[in-house]
Amino acid sequence: MAATLSLSNVSRVFGDTRAVDQVTLDIAPGQFVGVIGRSGAGKSTMLRLINRLIDPSEGSISFDGSEITTLKGKSLRAWRRDCAMIFQQFNLVDRLDVLTNVLIGRLAEHGFLSSMAMRFTDAERTMALQALDRLDLVPQALQRAGTLSGGQQQRVAIAKALVQQPKIMLADEPIASLDPANATLVMDGLKQINTEDGLTVLVNLHTLDTARAYCDRIIAMRAGRVFFDGTAAQLTDDVVRDIYGTEGLRDFNEAVTSTQRIAVPA
Q1: What is the top-level taxon of the source organism (predicted)?
Q2: In whole angstroms, what is the distance from residue 97 CA to residue 117 CA?
C-alpha cells in the first residue's frame, strides 16, 4: 500500500552553512515531484537526507508513519532498498554486462556469501529483463555497460533501481549530463514508472521546461529552504525570477540556451 513521505523541520548543517534549513514537506503517494533551484540551493542534500546517505542535523523524516532518521543496520539497508536512488553519475560497473548491473539492484535481498558470488535466481533474471524491456534496453542486455551511451546507462540505472521493488524513487539530476534526446527518454521512463506503478518519484532538475512538462508538483528551493511549492501552472515567470534572482536567472537561461532544451512530451 502506498504511503506518505514526511519531512518535519529537517535541517542539515555543514560548518557555518545550512545546506537544508527547516524543511517541512508531505509527499503524497504516487506524486511525480520536481525539485528545482539554483546550484547550492539544497536540492541534492535534501534527497540524500531522505535516502539516509547523510543524517539530518535537526528534524525528522518519516515514511508510512515509521521514523527514518533513527534507522540503523539492517533496517537502514531495507530503507535504502525501499527508497531507490538514481544518481547523475549512473553508478554502474563498466566492465560488467547490462543485465548483471541491473541484477546488482537485488543484492539487498541476498545473504553475504550469495552477494559476494553474485548468485541470482532465474526469477530475478526474469525480473531484470522485464525492467530492461520497459526501458527499451533488452537488446543491450549482454553488452558491457561501459560501452553504452550516457542516456542508455542512465536507463540501466533506472532498471537497476526498479528491480529493488522500491516504494519511492529519488533521482538526483538524472539528465544533467545528457543530450536532449536521451534526456527525454530518461524522463519518459521515470514518468512511465510513476504512472503505471503508482510509484512516488522525486527528481532534482536543472531545467524549468522539464519540470513543467513532467511534474505534478514542483518544489523550488532557495538557500536551503522551500521557496515555492505548487503546480506547473502556478510557477509563473515572476515566481521563477524570485526563485533564481536576476543574476541566477540570467545564468540559468544562458545555460539552457547553450545546451538545447529537452523535448516536451505531447
Answers
A1: Bacteria
A2: 16
Cβ atoms 38, 252 nearer than 8 A: yes
Residue with cell 525570477: 241
Among 43, 24, 38, residue whose Cα is nearest residue 203: 43
Classify the phi-psi angles of 79: left when phi > 0, otherwise alpha if psi is within -120 to 50, otherwise beta: alpha
Beta bridge partners of residue 26, listed in sequence order: 6
Contact 25, 221 (CB under 8 A): no
- Residue 74: CB partners within 8 Å, gap ≥ 6? none
To the nearest 10°, the Cα dihedral for 251, 252, 257, 262? Answer: 160
Report how far Cα 183 is from the mean position of its chain's Cα atoms.
Answer: 14
Q: What is the pLDDT of residues 98-122, one digit of tens each?
A: 999 999 999 877 654 555 557 789 9
Q: Which CATH superfamily is domain 5-258 in?
A: P-loop containing nucleotide triphosphate hydrolases (3.40.50.300)
195's grid cell: 504512472
The answer to whether 180 touches 186, Cβ cutoff 8 Å, is no
Domain ranges of the chain: 5-258
